[in-house]
Amino acid sequence: MRDLVYTGFISLDGVVDSPGGGPGEEHRSGGWVVKDIEFLPEAFSLKGEELVETTALMFGRRSYEAFAPIWRDSEDHAAYKELPKYVVSATLSDDALVEGWGPTTILRSADDVAGLKKGEGGAIFIHGSAELTRRLSEAGLIDRYHLLMFPVLLGAGKSLFSRADRDKQALALRASESYPNGIVKLIYDVVS
After folding, report:
1. DSSP per residue, the chain
2. What pLDDT score does 156 carry?
3. pLDDT tens-digit profile of 97-114?
4. Domain 4-190 classified CATH 3.40.430.10?
5. What backbone torsions phi and psi does residue 175 show, to the nearest 5 degrees?
6. Is 171:190 a contact under the CB 8 Å cutoff?
7. What is the spatial distance between Cα 7 and Cα 58, in angstroms, rounded to a whole number?
8. Which residues pair with 144 in a beta bridge?
């Protein structure tokens, strides 16, 4: 069974959208990861550590459309280039896939994701894709969260976690670390 891992930057109040800012920003605090917080390389070391474990990437349609054209040619993301990619979308067509960014498969439903998890291979990491992650969490398909929590309250933006009244989902802390700039690394396993 393959693990499905969400990784991302998150504000203290649970916002994960567009931490670097950019088009489609729905609130005035865009760019919150790079604004007003001292950059410390060690606070971002989690991203390098994840590369060792990542065997595939998964995105929702909008995150794929935003990341693929940029990450394909980015030296910072070169290690991801040839990894298999999965895009979960009911609307994306095969001809909309970005060429030259490794093998990409479109999955049409949470059932397709569940089938993929049952296959052989290592961990699949989800980047961005807050709406997809919420749906997969509600379907019981997320195994782990890798979060870099930033010391900001945004009050607006896409939330990683559902606000719906649902059964409690317990998490077990696997690792944590805090940094002088206020960022906290949190790695949680989802308890079945």
Report:
1. ---EEEEEEEETT-B-S-TT--TT--STTTTTTTSSS---GGGGHHHHHHHHHEEEEEEEHHHHHHHHHHHTT-GGGGGGTTS-EEEE-SS--GGGSPTTSS-EEEE-SHHHHHHHHTSSSSEEEEES-HHHHHHHHHTT---EEEEEEES---SSS-BSS--S------EEEEEEEE-TTS-EEEEEEEP-
2. 79
3. 999 999 999 999 999 999
4. yes
5. -160, 155
6. yes
7. 11
8. 5, 189
